[in-house]
Amino acid sequence: MTQYRLNLFIQHEHAKRLDELAAKKGVSKSSIVAAALASWLSPDAGDQREAAIAKRLDRLSRQAERLERDQNIQIETLALFVRYFLTVSTPVPEAHQDAARAQGKARFEQFVEQLGRHLLRGRSLVRDVVEELHPDPMRMDDAAALAEAHERTAERAS
């Protein structure tokens, strides 16, 4: 195949990125420019871009469907819990309602504080429960080593 020499002017930033890409990939700048030009001039280039975009959109759609499914599970779980709680809870006698409201308010504030701490940790309650029920021996060893190191640090500071 016959090759033609061209002298082109490109922006400094593009030249810099071309140099970096050629060095990173270990190929010539000419081969990169030739591949880019072939892609640009190819009648299938638009179809390839469209296929790539469609593939990404499909992946995003599946992720959105999983999020929706998970959200529905969470909503149903909460609704079932509330229904169960309201079914098994005994009514509070009229004489004790003020005390019950005060205790409920205090418990709710405590709940919100615990929720805030839990969210700051960035952990999942479900994951924590699973790890409590089925502890990983390797992680337990890591946790024990971490606790020992923390104790040694505290002893040195004393």
TrEMBL record:
Record's keyword terms, sorted: Coiled coil
Gene3D superfamilies: Met repressor-like
InterPro entries found in the cross-reference section: Arc_rbn_hlx_hlx, Ribbon_hlx_hlx
Coiled coil ranges: 50-77
GO biological process: regulation of DNA-templated transcription
The protein, known as: Ribbon-helix-helix protein, CopG family
